[in-house]
Automatic annotation (TrEMBL):
Entry keyword set: Glycoprotein, Golgi apparatus, Membrane, Methyltransferase, Signal-anchor, Transferase, Transmembrane, Transmembrane helix
Protein name, as recorded: Methyltransferase
Organism, as annotated: Quercus rubra (Northern red oak)
Single Gene Ontology BP annotation: methylation
Catalytic class of the enzyme: transferase
Location of this chain's protein in the cell: Endomembrane system; Golgi apparatus membrane; Membrane
Single Gene Ontology MF annotation: methyltransferase activity
Family to which the UniProt record says this protein belongs: Belongs to the methyltransferase superfamily.
One of the record's GO cellular component terms: trans-Golgi network
InterPro entries: Put_SAM_MeTrfase, SAM-dependent_MTases_sf
Membrane spanning residue stretches: 16-34
Length: 612
């Protein structure tokens, strides 16, 4: 057994097999060493790849925002469309208040004086010219009292209102002495009388509404008392009254109390007035007075000077009977009582009522209360003969809607609507962050343009105001801001008014309710992203050009892709433009576009001139 096992375990290996194994091992060794030997092609490739893969390349990365110069990423786009000047007849073109179109609508309830915008096929795709000889308006406060004749060449009011001291023509300028139909001795004396009843001086009253404003002298003289008045009047046979107001540097829009609601939120104004505005307050069961009540803040004041107040003195001048005027005043008194307004003053030509602070503090029988769940849904909505209800309160002394601080503390205090959580997605903390953001952004704007914040830019518009942060950061006596809240954006206009600022609802697919050349500076954040699928961007840009003064400035901020499109369109509009990085650096996709409108004027034959 032992010999058998030994013979099997010691079988000798063949020499050939051993040599094969040794040869394979040597071959494998040589193949492994060959790429590192310096003699093969693989070594050259490895060296080349090593050269291209420099670990320190990050130091030289190009962070320059290529969107500054990059072409729009659409193939074979044509050059920017060049917009030609409109005919000289359109110098004072107001798209939605044109006389020819207005006369096609009923005169009942002033419907024909309301907004009637052209259909898309009738929109003007041209640049509205300035009149020959146009000059930059006088700086504030001189501008309050003087306007260049060449800018608003209409003398009719100097004749029609000569006795009432509205406006005088002297040489090549209009002078505004500060008079009015019901205050021929001047707006200051009139406001002094109001201030004996209404707390104007201490900041309690900050926002005001002037219905049927004329040339807005009431609003003009309130400004030095730190009160902002929103003035409106229709475009009618009193040619250019709102245009005069804006040329003076006073907030105003074209508007009328007709059949649709005013474009302001409920509880917006601390004070409202009618100074011989000739609005038929007792017509349609008190419809117009109910609309004033909607926009008047609880505890706010309404002033009526003119018919029928002091009818015993003026009934012959007004060519109306004593009986008729007495009946009208009695009806106004009844309506005021129904609205929970308490009469505080009547002397001479002036009567003043104060709205109660809540529903608990007034005694009235059952009334027709408006059923709408959203009292601020007003854009093109018909007025109803119903009373807007007060917000709920828990005590008789509580102010419905919330108590406001006196101005200027009111400007940055948390507005009641935000404190109560009434604005979706906005908290007290996010509101304060928004304020910080806009203060930071305004610093950036002033670095770009040092004239921002000076009287060079008196009339300012924010096309997408949000919470009013831009206007609050800019707030000073040197300028005012029209805060526009687009009808398709979150409704924050009530917050804007609670801060002591003014503004209006608007749809930017339509013309704004103002004359051409009425704003010095237009700011727009996110407007074009908001509207890029709603209407053509060129419509919005042409409307901006219409309302911007020659040599006025535009500041836009939006996503880079949208800004590239806007910059291309603006290139055909006689604007000098510059696309800039976000204040936080070039990697932020939001960019800033700054533009300055060139000076040019219209002339006969549709040609233009750049001569000053």
């Amino acid at each position: 057994m032992g010999s058998k096992q030994n013979s099997q375990g010691n079988i000798p290996r063949k020499p050939l097999s051993i040599f094969l194994i040794i040869g394979l091992c040597c071959f494998s060794y040589m193949m492994g060493a060959w790429p590192r030997s310096g003699f093969g092609k693989g070594d050259g490739i490895a060296l080349e790849i090593g050269k291209q893969t420099d670990c320190n390349i990050i130091i030289n990365l190009d962070f320059e925002p290529h969107h500054k110069v990059v072409k729009i990423s659409e193939p074979s786009l044509p050059k920017a469309k060049v917009f030609k000047p409109c005919d000289i007849q359109y110098t004072d073109y107001t798209p939605c208040q044109e006389q020819d179109r207005a006369m096609k609508f009923p005169r009942e309830n002033m419907i024909y004086r309301e907004r009637h915008c052209p259909p898309e096929k009738e929109k003007l795709l041209c640049l509205v010219p300035a009149p020959k000889g146009y000059m930059t308006p006088f700086p504030w406060p001189k501008g309050r009292d003087y306007v260049h004749y060449a800018n608003v060449p209409y003398k009719s009011l100097t004749v029609e209102k000569a006795v009432q001291n509205w406006v005088q023509f002297k040489g090549d300028v209009f002078k505004f002495p500060g008079g009015g139909t019901m205050f021929p001795q001047g707006a200051d004396a009139y406001i002094d009388e109001l201030a004996s009843v209404i707390p104007i001086a201490d900041g309690t009253v900050r926002t005001a509404l002037d219905t049927g404003c004329g040339v807005a002298s009431w609003g003009a003289y309130l400004l030095k008392r730190n009160v902002l008045a929103m003035s409106f009047a229709p475009r009618d046979n009193h040619e250019a009254q709102v245009q005069f107001a804006l040329e003076r540097g006073v907030p105003a829009v074209i508007g009328v109390l007709g059949s649709i609601r005013l474009p302001y939120p409920s509880r917006a104004f601390d004070m409202a007035q009618c100074s011989r505005c000739l609005i038929p307050w007792t017509s349609n069961n008190g419809l117009y007075l109910m609309e004033v009540d909607r926009v008047l803040r609880p505890g706010g004041y309404w002033i009526l000077s003119g018919p029928p107040i002091n009818w015993k003195t003026y009934y012959k001048t007004w060519q109306r009977s004593k009986k008729d005027l007495q009946a009208e005043q009695r009806q106004i008194e009844k309506l005021a009582e129904l609205l929970c307004w308490e009469k505080k003053y009547e002397k001479g030509d002036i009567a003043i009522w104060r709205k109660k602070v809540n529903a608990k503090s007034c005694q009235r029988n059952s009334v027709n209360v408006c059923k709408s769940k959203d009292v601020d849904d007003v854009w093109y909505k018909k007025m109803d003969t119903c009373i807007t209800p007060f917000p709920e309160v828990t005590s008789k002394d509580e102010i419905a809607g919330g108590k406001l601080k006196k101005f200027p503390a009111r400007l940055f205090a948390v507005p009641p609507q935000i404190a109560k959580g009434s604005v979706e997605g906005i908290t007290a903390e996010s509101y304060q962050e928004d304020n910080k953001l806009w203060k930071k952004r305004l610093i950036t704007y002033k670095r770009i343009n040092r004239l921002i914040g000076t009287t060079r830019y008196r009339n300012v518009m924010d096309m997408n105001a949000g919470l009013g942060g831009f206007a609050a950061a800019l707030e000073s006596q040197k300028s005012w801001v029209m805060n526009v809240v687009p009808t398709i954006a979150k409704n924050t206009l009530g917050v804007v008014y609670e801060r002591g600022l003014i503004g209006i609802y608007h749809d930017w697919c339509e013309g704004f309710s103002t004359y051409p050349r009425t704003y010095d500076l237009i700011h727009a954040s996110g407007v074009f992203s908001l509207y890029q699928n709603k209407c053509q961007l060129e419509y919005i840009l042409l409307e901006m050009d219409r309302i911007l003064r020659p040599e006025g400035t535009v500041i836009l901020r939006d996503e880079v892709d949208v800004m590239n499109k806007v910059k291309k369109i603006a290139g055909g509009m006689r604007w000098n433009t510059k696309l800039m990085d976000h204040e936080d650096g070039p990697l932020v996709p939001e960019k800033i576009l700054v533009a300055v409108k060139q000076y040019w004027v219209g002339s006969s034959g549709n040609s233009t001139s750049t001569d000053e």
